[in-house]
Amino acid sequence: MPFERILICGAGVAGSVLAYWLAKHDFHVVVVERSKTEQTAGQGLEIEEPALKIIKSMRILDKLNQKKTGEMGFNLVDEQARSHGILEAGGVSPTGALELMRGDLTQILFKAADGSANVTYQFETTIQSLRQTQDKVIVDLENRNDKTIATEEFDLVVGADGVRSRTRQLVMGSPEELNCFKLVGAFVAYFSIPREDQDWPYSQLCHFTGRRIIWMRPLGKESKMTSVYLIHVHDDVPNLRRANAAGDRLKQKEAFAEIYSGLGWETPRVIQQMMRAENFYSDELVQVKLQKWSQNRVVLLGDAAWAPSPFTGQGNQLAIIGAWVLAQELSRNRNLVAFEMYEKRLRSYVENAQSIPLGGYGPYIFNPQTRWGIWLLRTSVRLVSWTIHFVSWLKLARILARILPDQPHSDFDLEIEEVEVNGAR
């Protein structure tokens, strides 16, 4: 019997894109998400080709453009707030042409998928257990508000529930058993603080010795908040590691406050407001590497299967592309062969995208340990900024675009011409 009813665990980018396309292929989809409907802020992200082609096919590009942060570019500053080079949006700048906050993107994707009669969302709901039979997956779902548990049957289950995937643990085992977490050697925190005039219109990043970064990014011209990233490249910070393992938000904040104590620029303001931030999130960066992405009737998608880490800049892209391919293969093979084809098409592309720049040394090169290293990096960015402005002034951008090779990770074949999607041509 072909698959008809599918459970997706996770209403993030991968989960909602998958739900949208499965509904177009006449599957009945239930999406469960442990969080509330409203997703606030999160980190900034960009959508590029070939993922952008999928987004255009969903006919939501106009809505995404309306939610762009408006960030005009990237400004590298020092402890006295002096600029060492501005990189305008697009091109080599960390600011992309379609720069969004994760919360805005997930909301738009959710509404696009939820618009189908074939899709049902259940927020504040978690998967507690599952049992696979020959032709079904029996799942216990818990409502986090009233603690009630409902038992339902599905033809298959998709775990799109992130790096710490509950679905993966239930089906395949713990990360320790699977040995699937590969430490990147960095700790991060994301949160928002009240905006001040100097926070607009460029994102601003300041380096400090000991491989510490503060990156502040505007959320929009009319927004009253500014997004902050703290990035500490270090392979062992015991206090922070213990706080992350325990999920103790106060201890996490205290550990970051200690790491960034006594530094200049906007640090005192950032730390003071961090202690009050309600949307604070911290973790140790890891990559997820699995030998297989599925087991019988359960398959993993996005970070649950292959988290590349933010240092690659490919997490969002892979989530969208992976969801497209999985939906495509399920439409072609309404049986377990779909999982084999999904992995066969994507595996090498994902492994290539997981490569951390500069042979894995990118995080260390771009986050120096010493004052000399920081000076060298600032000088390099200043030279790049001057060069870009000079090239633009000479109107050579079009010529260089023809000479330079394509961007990495842009060569994946979506096979988009071969698939007819009802109402999305």
TrEMBL record:
Organism: Endocarpon pusillum
Lineage start: Eukaryota, Fungi, Dikarya, Ascomycota, Pezizomycotina
SUPFAM superfamilies given in the database record: FAD/NAD(P)-binding domain
One GO MF term: oxidoreductase activity
Signal sequence, start to end: none
Flavoprotein is among the record's keywords: yes
Superkingdom, natural source: Eukaryota
Location of the FAD-binding domain: 6-331
Keyword Flavoprotein among UniProt keywords: yes
Keywords: FAD, Flavoprotein, Oxidoreductase
Protein name: FAD-binding domain-containing protein
Gene3D superfamilies per record: D-Amino Acid Oxidase, subunit A, domain 2, FAD/NAD(P)-binding domain
Pfam families cross-referenced by the UniProt entry: FAD_binding_3
